[in-house]
Amino acid sequence: MKKILLLTCCLLLAACGFQLRGTAALPFDTLYISFPQGHPIGTDLRRLVRASTSTRLVDNRKKAEAILEILSVTNDRQIMSVSGGGRVLEFELRYRVSFRLLDAKGEELIPTNELALRRIMPFTNQQVVAKEGEEAMLVREMQSDSADQIVRRLGAVKVAELNKSPQVNP
């Protein structure tokens, strides 16, 4: 009976269309990533592209079929709630990334786009050091999540064959 139940669950799961995300297939062979100097999102994006795609990263814009430009990256926090005594109870952490994708000719494949991520962090004055660590961890998580989302969006781009040009018969 247990085997039949297990088999039924497996068949239902397969029939619903569930599928693991898998790796991204980018529609171009070479990619140049431009990002604010010293910002860790550039490192995350490079790592993701190398690990999960067959696209090769190049160090020169002119050699790339596509150019990913990270235009701005900001993170901040805002007070969400305050106790009756004026103490902060919750912060909202915000992480914003603005990017665009260009082809080798400079035409936009993805126009300027912004990802905005938010996390709510409860706060207590008794655990200030622990909350600072938690905040750093949440910001790092949002940064990694935004890099994942950017790579998935790059994989969804429909690109005409870049090297194909009309041939003229003499």
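[next item in queue]
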Amino acid sequence: MSLLEGLRGQNVVVAHAHPDDETLATGALLAEIASAPGEVHVVTATRGERGELMPGLPGRAADLVPGSWSYVAYREGELAAALSALGIRHHAFLGQPPARAEGLPSRSYADSGMRWVSPGVAGPAADVGADAFTAAGVGEAAGDLAAYLRAADADLVISYDAGGGYHHPDHVRMHEVAKTAARECGLTFLEVIPPGRDDIPGDLDTIEWTDLSRHLPTVQAALRAHASQVQVEGGDVVHVGGQREPIVTRVGLRRA
């Protein structure tokens, strides 16, 4: 049985760093799991507060200011719409119950920011804030995710590989957090491997690749919900910074 087939009938928690990551990296995978028996949950660490803004947005969206309350609320709404398009009914933000360790007050993990160090490869921002996801200890964030895993009666956890997909510091941190939380709860941890990269860490022979292109229309609809960050042009997605890449429908999974 393949790893993907083994997800049928399971309670699966998929952990991501920012709104839109769930669709960009795992949209086809989420649509596939959501169409099968079992439950799929998405946990998002931050609200993507430091994301840029796609030019040419209509109406009030054009006046949004990254980092502002209205911008955060707008991105939360985009995320909700994207999850609905993918068929996902369960979502939580890390640090908010039930994704908060028992006995601790609610908190928000902020977007750590990033900078491009080469085409398609991100590096840490120069001005990471004290409330940033990467500034928090792995133990605290992993405790929050573990609380959600128990509340969801999860069978396994899925998140980024050790490189975070494209080395965004929040993605790398979420890999560490998800792996730690899975270990704490005694659960299997699967890594999502980005297609087309030549710098994937670990043993490439253990990756199971699956073509999920039948879910392309669903992923396109979910990506359109994230209009502040991306545009859909046929089978491609164009990012706010102008980077263009094929919409991911070829999914790689590997047991960590």
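[queue empty]
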